[in-house]
């Protein structure tokens, strides 16, 4: 492991990536992102998808994190600061005491699709603007073995710090790419040989009757407006049956139900 570099000055220029984290979350990071917490750092290192620029830890945590930090590439600098210094740099009390700065490495959609196996399951997201939902969707996609996530141009950033944290690091390990808008979004997936399934309370078939094609892309829209009509027009629409008087679920919850069904019925045992 690289020997941690002690930092005692909150204005040290080497900590530029970590300065006023919440403000930078809003204004952007020029191709970078911040990962927060031990579990998320573990995923960032193990996933190897996005290069790690540096790590900033509270000095009291260095010894306990030694085995994890030893897995970082030799060129990655590790900074250690007293808790008050770290809090001043970050701009709020950083109780987890562990931050990492990373560089985005996102493939374009065609490259992502070309690299998938012949049998593949994709989660497609349209207009997801809530970072909690984005994180939950990535977490479920990883938990149920989806091969990739495709997001449209109106989705929020999966590498926003809160989205990464809610995903428990899945946003750092699961491949994802952006894929246009509206009907073009579904058309590009179909051109790559995917059967496109769209979730809607008014779906034409019940989820229990849905069969999984060898290549399936299942699409979820934002709570409230749902998926655009232009997307549903070119997809098989599916509903989750609910008790009378209720017709909607949190989108992350819905994704867990749908993905479990598709994983539990890999051979397409049911057909509507």
The domain count comes to 2
Relevant CATH superfamily of the largest domain = SPOUT methyltransferase, trefoil knot domain
- Lateral arrangement of strands in the main beta sheet: 8-7-6-11-9-12-10
Shape: elongated
Biggest β-sheet, characterized?
Answer: 7 strands, parallel
Please give the count of helices: 11
Span between N and C termini? 57 Å
Fraction of residues in helix: 25-40%
- Tell me the CATH topology of the largest domain: Alpha/beta knot
Q: What is the CA-atom radius of gyration, in angstroms?
A: 21 Å
Structural class: alpha/beta
Mean pLDDT: 91
Q: Would you list the SSEs in sequence order as H and E?
A: EHEHEHEHEHEHEHHEHEEEHEH
The count of strands amounts to 12
The proportion of strand residues reads 15-25%
CATH C-level category of the largest domain: Alpha Beta
Assigned CATH architecture of the largest domain: 3-Layer(aba) Sandwich
Model regions low in confidence, pLDDT < 50 over at least 5 residues: 268-272
Molecular structure report:
The protein is an alpha/beta fold and 272 residues long. The protein has 2 domains: 99 residues, 2-Layer Sandwich (60s Ribosomal Protein L30, Chain: A); 156 residues, Alpha/beta knot. 33% of the residues lie in helices and 21% in strands. It has a 7-stranded parallel beta sheet, sandwiched between helices. Strands 1-4-3-5-2 form a 5-stranded mixed beta sheet. Helix 6 links the parallel strand 6 and strand 7. The longest helix is centred in the C-terminal third of the chain and has 14 residues. The radius of gyration is 21 Å and the shape is elongated. The chain starts with a strand and ends in an 8-residue tail after the last helix. The C terminus is likely disordered.
């Amino acid at each position: 492991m690289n020997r941690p570099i002690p930092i005692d000055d909150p204005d040290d220029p080497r900590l530029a990536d970590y300065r006023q984290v919440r403000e930078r979350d809003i204004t952007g990071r020029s191709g970078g992102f911040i990962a927060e917490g031990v579990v998320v750092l573990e995923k960032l290192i193990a996933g190897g998808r996005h290069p790690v620029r540096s790590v900033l830890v509270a000095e009291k945590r260095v010894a306990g994190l030694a085995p994890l930090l030893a897995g970082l590439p030799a060129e990655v600098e590790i900074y250690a600061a007293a808790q008050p210094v770290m809090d001043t740099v970050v701009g709020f009390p950083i109780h987890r005491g562990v931050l990492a700065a990373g560089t985005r490495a996102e493939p374009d959609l065609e490259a992502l699709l070309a690299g998938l196996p012949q049998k593949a399951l994709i989660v497609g997201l349209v207009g997801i603007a809530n970072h909690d939902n984005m994180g939950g969707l990535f977490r479920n996609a990883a938990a149920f073995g989806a091969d990739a996530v495709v997001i449209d141009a109106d989705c929020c950033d999966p590498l926003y710090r809160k989205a990464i944290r809610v995903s428990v690091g899945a946003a750092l390990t699961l491949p994802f790419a952006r894929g246009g808008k509206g009907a073009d979004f579904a058309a590009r997936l179909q051109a790559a040989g995917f059967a496109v399934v769209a979730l809607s309370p008014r779906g034409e078939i019940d989820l229990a009757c849905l069969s999984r094609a060898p290549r399936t892309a299942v699409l979820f829209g934002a709570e409230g407006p749902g998926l655009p009509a232009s997307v549903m027009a070119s997809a098989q629409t599916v509903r989750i049956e609910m008790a009378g008087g209720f017709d909607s679920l949190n989108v992350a919850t819905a994704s867990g139900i749908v993905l479990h069904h598709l994983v539990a019925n890999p051979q397409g045992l049911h057909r509507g």
